[in-house]
Design brief:
Radius of gyration: 31 Å
Distance between the termini: 92 Å
Strand order of the largest sheet: 11-19-18-17-16-15-12
Helix content: 25-40%
Largest sheet: 7 strands, parallel
Shape: globular
Length: about 775
């Protein structure tokens, strides 16, 4: 009986049955048997390349670990002095990543492409040897009496996607990535792994390259017409100095000339990369000038200007580099394909799912963003056979917080395959380890990028047992509890910026999860690796609980300090703080938000409770939050302050930039308080207008609780105390201050800068 299996779901089920039969001696081709001399050798060609040699080394190593038998690796094409051979043969018959396992007793032949033969070895070890690679630090190799395969084995496999890439940090480890059959450039694959399937050119990565190709810092001062017109003006956003925070004017012929020239220079500097990104910056500031607006109106999408521009670049590139591919984003405002213009054959669109709901598969969720996305992917599929899909699989606002999207992952990949996606990127936590079930996500995504039909239930069973060991039943209870929580599929969208305090996941779930993790820790005492895996998972629950508990107060204006007790909160914070570096934890994608989390957790870890009450407190500038440091303002030395440091706010904006959250203040409920601020205004000569404004805002109520507006002409030269308002504080409110407002159209600020020394809060009887 001969069986050819094109889908690994069939191969997996059949292999399990065959493996059981082989273990009993029925129709088995024995490859190694414990306690007996090697019955076969591993044979590779004399001129085998690095990946084939590495495949032989991996097979030899794991057979020895499985059975204690050392198989010789011999370079030969003819018969060798053994009764059987395992032949590794490189061929293009199955593509670069496909392979075929064929039993021809007494031989086993593994044939595959430059990566495929290595993947075939891993299939043999995983399916018939029971080897499990669950993390770069967690490999399970069972002790076998013998390693055997069915005597009539014929298993051919090819991946669902040409490129399979994820940014989950551990899955970018070269050896581990190869064992998961990931082949994207982020995996740091070496020549021994067969390299990556494709590589983006230096400085020409897969996203946001316009700031490199047309840097505002270089061109804007003399040529503002090169950049986007917004509301009738061409100007730079306040973030431009750091992130190129604008877009080019894509109908300007000089922009096309400069960008094309820079693209050609970049390709010349790195001609073997193959793919070069020419794509919009990471913002929605597309050009609204009459020429750009006319194109976008004609194309019924802002992708109209993008695609026409990129097509023109690609046309010129092809004259010099006919094999180069130009990639561009179909992202946010450019996600909908243009109505008239079609992509050139050497342009690759990268479609991004950033706005979608991820609680259910993209084509199942009822949210409009998903309905539109389904229509968009089908539109791009009609234009190209090189569709690149950028999908999102974590909570970028709070990596450790529970993010129940795993049940949608397989359906999404089936949907992508059905819509002819060839290049697949699943973005995760690329900055740290142990995000909410992060290792499980990376492992499942790798399995389903290879074959989206692989059944979920056995994969989950296998991972939990392999990764958590004896703690698996307890870890699985946390998982099952999370994915059984009711969620309104119509109103409760699961986006990639979920807030840790969101009520979508009740606090009671985290309380239950904590009990399960504590039981899990007991189950793996003495098992160093599994104990570490359990502790890492428990840290995720601790993080969510920490932000559900009453927050430690750092500013005390209460007569009843006995009402504030933070022992549990402090214990969690101390544990998270101590684990951050050893466990390589990352709390958020944004550097600014990450810094805020670290500072908050450090403050909670060091929190103390006053033993005596007080009615007044001052908060110096060093303890006030400044938004977008370096852009909106900076912490600066100033001898006129009471402790030598102030927040200096620039005159380039009038955003609320200084902040003190009332959740950090210990106050008495339903009591009137007063807030005032000590400020110095550096005025423009003879200027008139607003110097600064300040107030208290109530976030839950979405309304202010009092504010002031101070005119520049009424400010002195030194620091002055200004009363802001009287009100009854509540958590969810915050004090704010920003530099003075001025007209958006041609207006200028009345000040050079505003210097904030401190804020005072006092009880009013």
């Amino acid at each position: 009986m001969k069986r050819t299996m094109r889908r690994s779901v069939v191969g997996l089920v059949a292999a399990v049955v065959a493996f059981a039969a082989a273990a009993q001696g029925a129709q088995a081709l024995v490859l190694a048997e414990r306690g007996k001399p090697a019955a076969c050798a591993i044979v590779v060609a004399k001129d085998a390349g690095p990946s084939l040699k590495y495949a032989a080394e991996e097979l030899q190593f794991y057979v020895r670990k499985l059975t204690g038998v050392e198989l010789a690796v011999e370079a030969a094409k003819m018969a060798v002095p053994h009764t059987a051979t395992i032949r590794l043969e490189q061929t293009d018959d199955y593509g670069t990543d496909g392979f075929r396992l064929t039993a021809r007793p007494p031989d086993l032949v593994i044939r595959g492409g430059v990566r495929g033969c290595l993947y075939g070895v891993y299939e043999l070890l995983e399916t018939y040897g029971g080897v499990g690679w669950y993390a770069s630090w967690r490999t399970v190799v069972p002790r076998l009496d013998r390693l055997a395969v069915p005597a009539d084995l014929d298993d051919e496999q090819r991946p669902a996607f040409k490129m399979r890439m994820t940014s989950w940090l551990d899955a970018t480890h070269g050896d581990f990535a190869a064992r998961l059959r990931l082949n994207g450039a982020r995996a740091h694959l070496q020549e021994k792994h067969g390299g990556a399937v494709c590589r983006f050119g230096k400085h020409m990565g897969s996203c946001h390259t316009f700031s490199f190709l047309l840097p505002p810092k270089k061109y804007f001062a003399e040529h503002p017409e090169y950049f986007a017109m917004r509301d009738g003006k061409r100007e730079l956003h306040e973030k431009s100095a750091r992130w190129g925070y604008t877009q080019p004017c894509l109908t300007n012929p000089d922009v096309l000339r400069i960008v094309t020239s820079n693209v050609l220079e970049a390709i010349k500097a790195d001609p073997t990369a193959g793919i070069y990104g020419v794509s919009q910056n990471d913002n929605r500031l597309y050009c609204q000038c009459p020429a750009c607006a006319a194109v976008d109106e004609e194309e019924e999408s802002h992708a109209g200007t993008v695609v026409r521009f990129v097509n023109a670049v690609a046309e010129e590139v092809e004259k010099h580099y006919p094999d180069a591919i130009i990639e561009t984003l179909a992202y946010q405002y450019s996600r909908k394909p243009p109505k008239k213009t079609r992509l050139r054959h050497n342009v690759m669109p990268c479609l991004c799912s950033i706005e979608c709901d991820f609680h259910k598969p993209l084509d199942v969720s009822p949210f409009k963003s998903n309905v539109d996305f389904v229509e968009d992917i089908r539109g791009w599929t009609r234009q190209t056979d090189m569709l690149y899909l950028w999908d999102y699989t974590t909570n970028f606002r709070n990596y450790l917080h529970a993010f129940p999207n795993i049940m949608a992952l397989q359906g999404n990949l089936k949907f992508f395959r059905a819509n002819n996606v060839k290049y697949m990127f699943e973005q995760g936590d690329s900055l740290g380890l142990h995000a909410d079930f992060g290792e499980l996500r990376a492992w499942l995504l790798a399995k389903w990028m290879w074959n989206p039909d692989a059944p979920m239930a056995p994969l989950l069973d296998r991972f939990f047992k392999g990764y958590y060991g004896a703690a698996a039943p307890h870890a699985r209870k946390v998982f099952d509890d999370l994915y059984s929580l009711p969620r309104d599929s119509v109103t409760q969208r699961l986006g990639i910026y979920e807030v840790v305090t969101s009520t979508n996941i009740p606090t009671a779930f985290f309380e239950r999860a904590e009990k399960h993790w504590l039981a899990a820790a007991e189950a793996v005492k003495g098992d160093r690796i599994c104990a570490r895996n359990v502790e890492a998972a428990y840290l995720s629950t601790m993080f969510s609980l920490l932000y559900r508990l009453p927050r430690p107060r750092t500013v005390w204006v209460t007569r009843h300090p006995e009402n504030f007790n933070y022992d549990r909160c402090r214990a969690y914070a101390q544990r998270l703080l101590a684990a951050r570096k050893p466990f390589n934890l990352r709390f958020a994608e944004s550097g600014e938000r990450e810094k805020a989390f670290r500072e908050e957790i450090a403050a909670m870890a060091a929190a103390t409770v006053l033993t005596t009450g007080c009615d007044r407190a001052e908060v110096p500038a060093s303890r006030l939050r400044l938004s977008v440091p370096g852009v909106r303002g900076e912490y600066a030395k100033d001898a006129g302050t009471l402790n030598g440091t102030a927040i200096k706010l620039f005159n380039t904006h009038y955003e609320w930039s200084v902040r003190l959250d009332l959740a950090s203040v210990a106050y008495d409920p339903d009591v009137m308080y007063k807030v005032r601020v000590r400020v110095r205004v550096e005025k423009e000569p003879d200027a008139k207008g607003e110097a600064f404004w300040a107030g208290v805002y109530d976030t839950p109520a979405k309304k202010g609780r009092g504010s002031i507006s101070v005119k520049a002409e009424k400010c002195g030269d030194g620091y002055v105390w200004y009363d802001v308002c009287k009100w009854k504080p509540k958590d969810g409110q915050y004090f704010w201050l920003g530099p003075g407002r001025f007209k958006k159209d041609g207006g200028v600020s009345a000040i050079k800068s505003v210097w904030v020394d401190r804020v005072e809060i006092s009880r009013v009887d």
